Every structure is written in structure tokens, then in C-alpha cells.
Amino acid sequence: MGTSGHSLDTFNIADLTPEQQRILIEIRRRKTELLLEIQVGI
Description:
The protein has one domain. By secondary structure, it is mostly helical. The chain has one helix at 18-41.
């Protein structure tokens, strides 16, 4: 895997600005909604 920087193990939300943290939380929330829609649609 190496040290590409894309690993969640090395990701720290505290490194983001408050605005970036807010956007990330919104993206994660939307991702969960979409995954649920996909599961229900099958």
C-alpha cells in the first residue's frame, strides 16, 4: 500500500479547517444516505 496519504489510518480530521470539517461531515452524511437508497432500491 505504501504511504500514498490516502489511507484513513493516517487521516486526521483535526488537520482540516472548521469549514473543511463541516464539508466533510456533510459529504459523509450524504454518502450514507445514498448507500441506503441503493440498498433499498435493490
